[in-house]
């Protein structure tokens, strides 16, 4: 009975082995059958790759740069320069100050030139040129008028100042100087140094603001006029075409 049981186990083992052999044969034949049926297979191989990481901090800190290396200075760049508003204001103020100083220098130069011209006029024409008929009082008036050349003064103020130098106090409109105390109107057309010249209806041609004008004759065909062009005292001609009245004070 035992032997029969062993036989049955052996037969089962043999059956299992046979079945495994058949299965293995079928598996080994499958790729060939598939290949025979036109199936394409491919393979791809990738090379091995290894990454090497560097210590960037160590490299940066170990960089050696020569002290005389040139990397391009800012001064070498051609960059347009611009100004701030404060710089523009300061420059404008500086220009204004320079212009004011220039004008002041020009005004001073002009004043000095006028003073030199006045001195030249005094030296070229003085009381000694007026003749023996001029009195000492007339000479005092002439000297006062000369001293005022270049001053800002109208015609009546000039003649009033000249009269005051000889002790006469009088002031009025130009045509009113015909009434100067102690004076009289000259009718023979002659002129003497110290005479008061009165003009009417000059239409401002004398340079003054009033239509009438008054001046002081100093001799040599010249008179000193106040309120001349520019409103200053000046030495000029007698304006014979506008002269209407001559007042003389003995």
Fill in the keyword field for this structure.
single chain, 250 residues, alpha+beta, endopeptidase fold (from Nostoc punctiforme), six-stranded antiparallel sheet, 5 helices, 41% helix, Papain-like_cys_pep_sf, thiol protease
Please render the helix and strand layout as text.
Layout: H1 2-36, H2 56-61, H3 85-124, H4 136-147, H5 155-164, E1 184-185, E2 196-199, E3 213-219, E4 222-225, E5 234-237, E6 243-248
Antiparallel strand pairs: 1-6, 2-3, 2-6, 3-4, 4-5
Helix pairs in contact: 4-5
Structure, described:
It comes from Bifidobacterium reuteri DSM 23975. This protein has 250 residues and is an alpha+beta fold. The chain has a domain at 107-248: Alpha-Beta Complex (endopeptidase fold (from Nostoc punctiforme)). The chain has helices spanning 2-36, 56-61, 85-124, 136-147, 155-164, and strands at residues 184-185, 196-199, 213-219, 222-225, 234-237, 243-248. Strands 1-6-2-3-4-5 form a six-stranded antiparallel sheet, with helices on one face. Helix 4 packs across helix 5. It is rod-shaped, with a radius of gyration of 63 Å. The chain starts with a helix and ends with a strand.
Helical/strand content category: alpha+beta
Roughly how many Å is the radius of gyration?
Answer: 63 Å
CATH homologous superfamily annotation of the domain at 107-248: endopeptidase domain like (from Nostoc punctiforme)
The percentage helix is 40-55%
Give the CATH level 1 class of the domain at 107-248.
Alpha Beta
- CATH fold label of the domain at 107-248: endopeptidase fold (from Nostoc punctiforme)
What's the pLDDT, averaged over the residues? 74
The ordered string of helix (H) and strand (E) elements is HHHHHEEEEEE
- Could you state the oligomeric state of the chains shown? single chain
């Amino acid at each position: 009975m035992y032997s029969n049981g062993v036989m049955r186990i052996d037969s089962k083992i043999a059956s299992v082995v046979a079945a495994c052999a058949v299965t293995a044969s079928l598996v080994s034949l499958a790729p060939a059958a598939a290949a025979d049926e036109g199936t394409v297979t491919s393979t791809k191989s990738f090379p091995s790759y290894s990454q090497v990481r560097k210590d960037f901090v160590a490299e940066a800190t170990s960089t050696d740069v020569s002290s005389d290396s040139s990397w391009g200075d800012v001064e070498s760049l051609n960059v347009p320069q611009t100004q701030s508003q404060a710089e523009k204001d300061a420059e404008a103020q500086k220009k204004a100050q320079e212009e004011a100083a220039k004008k002041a220098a020009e005004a001073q130069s002009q004043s000095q030139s006028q003073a030199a011209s006045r001195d030249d006029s005094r030296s070229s024409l003085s009381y000694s040129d007026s003749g023996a008929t001029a009195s000492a009082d007339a000479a005092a008036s002439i000297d006062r008028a000369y001293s005022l050349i270049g001053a800002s003064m109208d015609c009546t103020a000039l003649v009033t100042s000249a009269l005051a130098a000889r002790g006469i106090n009088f002031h009025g409109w130009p045509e009113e100087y015909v009434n100067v105390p102690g004076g009289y109107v000259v009718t023979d057309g002659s002129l003497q140094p110290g005479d008061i010249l009165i003009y009417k209806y000059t239409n401002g041609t004398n340079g003054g603001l009033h239509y009438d004008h008054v001046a002081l004759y100093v001799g040599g065909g010249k008179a000193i006029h106040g309120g001349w062009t520019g409103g200053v005292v000046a030495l000029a001609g007698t304006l014979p075409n506008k002269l209407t009245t001559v007042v003389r004070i003995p």
